[in-house]
Structures are given as C-alpha cells and as structure tokens.
Amino acid sequence: MAVKGLGELDRQYDGSKLRIGILHARWNKKIIDSLVEGAVKKLKQLGVKENNIVIETVPGSFELPYGSKLFFQQQKEKGTPLDAIIPIGVLIKGSTMHFEYICDSTTHQLMKLNFELGIPVIFGVLTCLTEEQAEARAGLIPNKMHNHGEDWGAAAVEMATKFN
C-alpha cells in the first residue's frame, strides 16, 4: 500500500488566485475521468475557483508534452495565463516495448517543460503494469488506494504558490 498523498501540508496553501490547466489523454477513459475528477476536487478544496480550472484533451499520453506546451502558449496569448499545468495520462504495460518507450519519452519531456515554460508541470501520468493497478491509483477500487489526481491537484497549488 502506497503512502497516501501529500498529507497535511496541502492545507497551508491558498489557490484562490491561481489559474490551473488540466490537459488529459483520452485513452483509458474511465481511469482518466476519475483522475481528472480527483484533481478538480482537490483544486477546489484548496480555493481554486471553478472558472480558473481549464480542462483540455489530447489523444494519448505521448501527446501530453507537446499539447501542454501549446496549451500554455494558447492561454498566454488569450491573456489568461496558467500558473500550473497538470498533464494527466495512463499508460498500462502491454506485451511489447511500446510501454517503455512512451513512459520514458513522456516523462523526460514533461520534466523539461517545467524549465521551458517557467511554471510547474505536475507529473500526472500513471505508469502501471496492469489495469487493476491503474484503477486502484485512480481510486476506483474501494479500500485499495486513493485517487492520485487529488495529489496532483495539491502539488499544483503548492508549487504555484510556494515559489511565486
């Protein structure tokens, strides 16, 4: 059993002045929907206004890094810049090397975006060996694990407020 989330630390951060983007893949819809719901729930609990939570989609997890960059630029050009982005995806191992390549490249590119964009880009990609593991981490299996989307929402608020 994994340690549950960020604990009590998330209570000291006020997200009321933040604008947070959530960009999610469309693969594994049931799991993704739960993770997005968890992130939104936590963002609201930490004071982020509903109209300051912007949600957009891309086809899959591989598209999250480039999509996040375009999403950031689009919002900035509209005059509604984002304070943090939570790219959300789910990768589940299959019988080929595809999983490893997508996990590795997506992870590295999302990490680089933190420095390129100058805002927090939270790693919201589950990389699981089985669908059951992904469902557990999305909070879909009662008493198994918590919804990791909540952790990502808390991390976005903490990182966007702590260092600004």
Automatic annotation (TrEMBL):
Q: In which pathway does it act?
A: Cofactor biosynthesis; riboflavin biosynthesis; riboflavin from 2-hydroxy-3-oxobutyl phosphate and 5-amino-6-(D-ribitylamino)uracil: step 1/2
- What does the record give as the reaction this protein catalyses? (2S)-2-hydroxy-3-oxobutyl phosphate + 5-amino-6-(D-ribitylamino)uracil = 6,7-dimethyl-8-(1-D-ribityl)lumazine + phosphate + 2 H2O + H(+)
Q: Name one GO molecular function term.
A: 6,7-dimethyl-8-ribityllumazine synthase activity
Q: Does the keyword DNA damage apply?
A: no
InterPro entries this protein is in?
LS, LS/RS, LS/RS_sf
Q: Which HAMAP family match?
A: Lumazine_synth
Q: Subunit notes for this chain?
A: Homopentamer.
Instruction: Show the PANTHER family listed in the entry.
Output: 6,7-DIMETHYL-8-RIBITYLLUMAZINE SYNTHASE, 6,7-DIMETHYL-8-RIBITYLLUMAZINE SYNTHASE DMRL SYNTHASE LUMAZINE SYNTHASE
Q: Give the protein's recorded name.
A: 6,7-dimethyl-8-ribityllumazine synthase
